[in-house]
Amino acid sequence: MSHCHTYLKKLRDQGYRITPQREMIVQIIAHCGKHMSAEEVMEIVREKSSSINIATVYRTLDMLVENGLASKFDLGNGKTAYATGKHGPHIHLVCKHCGSVTEVSENDISAFLERIEDLYDFDCHPYHFSIHGLCGECSNSEIS
């Protein structure tokens, strides 16, 4: 069973009704392999069906987040993105000036996470999170 069908089964088992619109949204986010905004999901859904609105997309994405099937995170400048567990744990470095986003794997910050665990007696399980700052290009320019 593909991960998209696994997600749909889990939602059905939780008592959610799976409408054709919800199924399309789940398929898109599950198979995209990247971060997507609700608007990007909407664009793809609209190619297949005009009987959907952005509120349905947001509600479905939030339902996936609430059920642990996707994560939602801030990419700065009011941009919110979603990704499924298939995308894997990582951190986003978001430039607050130019908006560039660099992905950093969990392995690359393992020492940082271990330090947090030691200092705060906190067992870290990051999935997606963002650190905002300035990229190298912006910090080396006259912007900073």
Give a short synopsis of this structure:
The protein is of the alpha+beta class. Helices cover 44% and strands 19% of the residues.
Describe the fold and architecture.
This protein is of the alpha+beta class. It folds into 2 domains: 3-72, Orthogonal Bundle (Arc Repressor Mutant, subunit A); 89-140, Ferric-uptake regulator, C-terminal dimerisarion domain (Dna Ligase, domain 1, 2-Layer Sandwich), CATH 3.30.1490. Helix content is 44%, strand content 19%. It has 6 helices and 5 strands. The protein has helices spanning 3-13, 20-31, 38-48, 54-66, 110-120, 136-140; strands at residues 70-74, 80-84, 90-95, 101-105, 128-133. The strands form 2 sheets. The protein has a 3-stranded mixed β-sheet with strand order 4-3-5, with no helix packed on it. The protein has a two-stranded antiparallel sheet with strand order 1-2. Strand 1 (70-74) and strand 2 form a beta hairpin. Helix 1 crosses helix 2 (20-31). The N and C termini lie far apart (50 Å). The relative contact order is 0.13.
Helices, strands, pairings?
Blueprint: H1 3-13, H2 20-31, H3 38-48, H4 54-66, E1 70-74, E2 80-84, E3 90-95, E4 101-105, H5 110-120, E5 128-133, H6 136-140
Parallel strand pairs: 3-5
Antiparallel strand pairs: 1-2, 3-4
